[in-house]
Each structure stands twice: as structure tokens, then as C-alpha cells.
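so my prof wants the structure for this chain in the C-alpha cells format not the other one, which i didnt know existed until like an hour ago. anyway here's the sequence
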Amino acid sequence: MASPKIAKYSLSDLKNTTDDALPNYLKSLKFKQIHFLTDVRLALGYIAVTIAGVLFYADWKLGWDATKAATLWAVIAYFTINGALTVWIWGVERGKVFSGEREDGTWLSVASSVKKHTPIYNVTVRHQTPDGKVDTMKLSAPFTRWFDADGCFVAQPFQHWLATEVPLIGKADPKNKQGKTTNGGMQVAETEISQENKTPRKAHGRASTPATTRSGKGKK
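here's what i got, hopefully its the right format
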């Protein structure tokens, strides 16, 4: 079933919708998502907001003269935490949309990105086996591969792309790996012979005049 329509010319909408679908697909394959990166980002954000809120309340209740010394340290702490949050987002997370592991101890990390004015979904996949072997691969595909003409996300071609390109995902989802799709998420169907091709055409002209062929085999 296709998702609700989005603005198909908006790169941010295309990316965000695809990013949301990726963890859902991997979790359906028994990958357990680890939320450590998200938890740290949220914690830093909440701490910064709490400092700003407490400082505002104290200034409102006690006045500037009573809180100006504390304000200096609060401002320093606020900008320090926001700086740490920026470093965490751009230096540690680096576009990661999924981080998790399977029951056998295989660890998987997926990061995504898009370039300005380029409707191509770029993915960096990094996985580590239980024995410590690390493998990194980069993939890219146009959004039109899993968004139809109306701007609806179609899950099957997106899952097929991942299962085909990433061996670890293909091993966990052999059905999608062996599946066959076309652009726009439509299943490839067999071409049926039309009734018009099955029925011989009638010759034009008088009914008493038999039709002839060009094969040189004579009259029918």
C-alpha cells in the first residue's frame, strides 16, 4: 500500500519519507535498533532548553541584579552544550538513520544524504560481523525508483533495492532480493495478447471478394 502523497519536487520531503521507511523495513527483518545516538542528541537538547528556561524564570522572579552572576555561567553552559550538540550531529551521527544489530551479533549502520538540486538518494552502509570484520559500501539511486508519479512512496521497490545491493539485507530478506520491479514500484506483468490480435481482420470491400495474403500461399 502506497503512503500519503508528498511534494515530489521537495528533496527534503523525499529524503525524510525515505529515511522514515528505512528503519521500519530493517526492524521487520529482526534488526534491533539501538537508539544511543538519538538519546544523546535529545539529552543535549533538553539540557540546553532547561538551562534557558530556568534562567528566564529566575530573572523574572528575582530580577537582573540578583541573577546577573548566574546568568554569565548559564549562558556559557548553554552555548557549550549547543556546541556539543552541533558536533554530535555533524561529527558523530553524520546522517545516520539506523544503527542496530541482529540476534547473531551482526551490527549494521546506515547513513543517508542528498546533494543540493540532485534527486539522488545516497546511502552509506557499514556492517560488522561477530568476528570483528568491518565492511563499508556506498549506494545511490534516484527517488523515482520508489516514488510514483503522484508522489507516493512505494515500499516494495525500495526494499528490493536494499536487499539486492546489500548482501546482509538480502540474506535477511531473500524474497525481496529475488523480486522483480520496474520504476515507480509497479510489478512487472506478462504481456497479454489482445483480442484484436487473436481475431483476423476482415477485408475491406465487397463481401464476395475473398481476402488474400502477401505470403504467396494463395487464398484463405
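also thought this was worth mentioning. The first helix runs from residue 11 to 28.
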